[in-house]
Amino acid sequence: MVADEIRAEIEQLGVAAVAPGQAELVLKLAETFDETDAPTARAVVARELGAAMKTLRALAPAVKEGDGVDDLTARRAARRGA
Fold first, then answer.
1. What's the rounded Cα separation, in Å, for the pair 58 and 68?
2. pTM
3. Are 56 and 13 in contact (CB under 8 A)?
4. What are the b/e assignments for 38-53, b being 16+ CB within 10 Å?
5. What pLDDT, on the 0 to 100 scale, is given for residue 70?
6. Nearest to 61 by CA among 22, 12, 28
7. DSSP state at residue 1
8. Which contacts qualify for 14-18: CB closer than 8 Å, 24 or more apart?
9. What is the mean pLDDT of each successive set of 10 residues along the chain, which is 82 residues long?
10. pLDDT (0 to 100) of residue 81
11. Among 69, 65, 66, 49, which Cα is nearest to 57's?
């Protein structure tokens, strides 16, 4: 179901604490999408869900990834036994 996938993505992004209202709105839209069978209604909900998810993804905290300097620092620490 779409709601389960959206819930998992919200957890992965870590945005529930940053924008709880927006996260709840996205979940309600996903549940509405799952519950309706009318093609027109599904299209409208899908469009709104996509827009809301775009907003949530933009609010997600940046994930720190290592760079070349971090790699060198880690290797130096390993060599020194730290």
1. 26
2. 0.73
3. yes
4. eeeebeebeeebeebb
5. 76
6. 12
7. -
8. 14/60, 14/61, 15/56, 15/59, 15/60, 15/61, 18/59, 18/60, 18/61
9. 96 93 96 96 97 95 71 84 68
10. 78
11. 49
User: What's residue 41's pLDDT?
Assistant: 97
**Of 53, 65, 63, 64, the residue nearest 19 (C-alpha):** 53
Q: Give the pLDDT of residue 67.
A: 67
Tokens of 48: 């709104």
Q: Tokens standing for 14?
A: 């870590």
Instruction: Provide DSSP, 33-74.
Output: HHH---HHHHHHHHHHHHHHHHHHHHHSPPPP---HHHHHHH
pLDDT of residue 76: 86
